[in-house]
Amino acid sequence: xxxxxxxxxxxxxTTIIIDNCRIIFDNFHKKTFSGxxxxxxxxxxxxxxxxxxxxxxxxxxxxxxxxxxxxxxTEAIKIFLNNSYPLSLxxxxxxxxxxxxxxxxxxxxxxxxxxxxxxxxxxxxxSESFLPISSMFQCKLAFSIPNTLxxxxxxxxxxxxxxxxxxxxxxxxxxxxxASYVGQTKRKLxxxxxxxxxxxxxxxxxxxxxxxxxxxxxxxxxxxxxxxILDIESSYNKRLxxxxxxxxxxxxxxxxQNDTEALPESYSQIINSLSPS
Length: 277
Fold this sequence. Notes:
Blueprint: E1 8-11, E2 14-19, E3 22-27, H1 46-63, H2 66-82, H3 87-106, E4 117-121, H4 131-136, E5 140-144, H5 149-152, E6 168-173, E7 180-185, H6 189-202, H7 210-218, E8 228-232, H8 236-248, H9 268-273
């Protein structure tokens, strides 16, 4: 429980102050705040770097009382400079944000239009070339950064057991031939495999399960203890795309290929040039 003193209480990113029976706010940084931000010379898109300044300045303008804003903005400028941001860019964005918030206060009618976004991995001087293409489809382009510290620094969590993973694209291979089946599930892999095995036990020939048909028609067994996880993806749409690609990459797939109908034909040649998964 936070305990205040001298009519002040630090809470999250603000200091709550009681001043003449009124509550006002000031910005607050914890003692652990190092002032380290995304460096201007890092390999990130420019809109990410601008977003750092925007979020910092917006927090000052929206949370702190006007009497504190000048000092807070001065401190923010020092932090930006220490992270190699050009002074001209800093002043330009600060000016834009002040004008933006003044305009928003005067214009109380806000018309929110839902915008569409398309996300691609960021590669400097290459990803920007997609901007004209995205504008043709009235879609905003967003960049993702695949190489983050999170991908290199392991979390202090125990690794999940193989069959306990969810949001996976998986591959079941036949034990008696080269046939294989690729599927996707948002649930635990063990749950989905139990459904496949249960379908075989019921022996519903002609059912939607191609695995059951293969087992009954050829009397082949499957490697249930050696099921591969080809990809892990939490986004449903991205998971479907990944599933389509891995279905196409099979050497002798059992899939009916219905799941690949949404995949543009122009990608087939590229996928076929890849080694089978």
